[in-house]
Amino acid sequence: MASPPHVRELTVDDLTDAWHLGRRAFGSDPQPAPHATVAVPGLIRYGAFDDTGRLLGKAVDLHHEQWWSGRAVPAADVAGVAVAPEARGRGVARALLTGLLRGAHDRGAAVSALFPTVTAPYRACGWDVAGVMRTVDVPTVALPRHRPAPHLSVRAGGPADMPAVVALYERLARDRRGMLTRRGDLFDPHTTADTLPFDGLTLVEDDGHLVGYASWDRGRGYRDDAVLTVHDVLATTADAARELVGVLASWHSVTPTLRLRLLGGDAVGAHLPLEAVREHKQEPWMHRPVDVTRAVAARGWPTHTRGTVEFTLTDELAEWNTGTWRLTVADGAAQLTRVTADVDLHLSVRGFALLYSGASTAASVADAGLLHATGTDPRALDLLAAGGAAHLLDYF
C-alpha cells in the first residue's frame, strides 16, 4: 500500500512543475502567465508529494477577507486545486485540503470559500454549496432609458479613480455577507496601476462624489454576436442606477448583448428588465469554516437577533472545530464557547457551512442528514443562520 502523500508549501523551485500539473488539469494556455512561476504576495501554494518527491497535486490558499454584516472576516479562499491523473481517487485532494486548512488556521483565517469544478470531493471535505454566482445576458435594446438627472454628472474614469471605485464597492459590499473586501496584496495593484484592469470605466457623480460606476470590456465586433461584458455595475442611489442603465443602453447599436453578474436586491437590478434576462453561466460556490470560534466572533450579526443554542459539531479535517458548543447571539455580536453538557443537536461541518452562510434552514439541513436532533426541534439552530443569504461577485 502506498504511503500517504506529504503536503507542504511549494517553493519557487516547485512552481514550474505545479504550473504544468495545472495546465494539464484545466487545459490552460501552453505558456505560463508571468505570475505562475514566481512568488506572489497574498497567497500560499501547497503541494502533495509522493515518497520520491514527485508532485501529485496542488492547491492555493488565497488570503482574502469576506464582508459579513459590516465586519471583514479573514478568509482562506481556495483555488487551483489539481491532482495528477494517475493519482486521482487516492486521497491526494483530501490530504492537500487538510494541509491547507491547517496552514490557514495557523495564520488566523476564519472561513473559506471556493468555486468547484465538481462538488462531491469538497463536500467530502466539509465545504457545501452556499450560493450561485449568476452571469446573465440581456438584450441591450431592452434596457430602459430615462431622462438624465440634472444633479448627476457622468464621465469616463481612469486609474486615478480606482480608490474611489473600490470605496464605493466596499460601501455596498460591507453590509452583505460573503462578498470579498477587495483589499490586500491580491487587489492593491489594481488601485495603484497606471492603466485600468478593464477596457472602460463609467462614473456617475453627485456634486463630485461617486454614487455609481460600471467597469466593462468592449469585446470584438459590432454585429449580432457582439457582447459588452460588464464586470461591475453598482450604484448607491436609484438615480445613479438609472444613469448607468441608460449609458449601457446606449451601446445597443454596436453590442446587441450586455453580459453582467447579477447581485440580488441591489439598486441597479431594480431597473433591469429581468424578464429579458437569459442565463449565460451559473457558477456554484462553496463555503466552510476554517475555525468556528473565529467565524462566529469575527462576523456581524443582526442587532435584533438574540438567543442561545447548544450543539455538537463534527469536523474530520479540522479537528479543532470538533466538540460541543454553546452559541450566544446578542447586540450584533456572537460567540461560541465549549461546554461539557449532553446536547440533543448534532451538526456536521457541512451543516454549519449551510447555516452560517444563510444557504439553508435548520429544518432543511436536518432533512439532508447534516443535522440530527434527538427530542429537540432542529429549528433552534436557525440562530446560526441569522442574517440572510451570502453572495459573491468575484470569481477566483
UniProtKB/TrEMBL annotation:
Domain N-acetyltransferase: 5-150
A Pfam match: SCP2_2
InterPro entries given in the database record: Acetyltransferase_Eis, Acyl_CoA_acyltransferase, Eis_dom, GNAT_dom, SCP2_sterol-bd_dom_sf
Protein name: Acetyltransferase
The species this protein was found in: Micromonospora purpureochromogenes
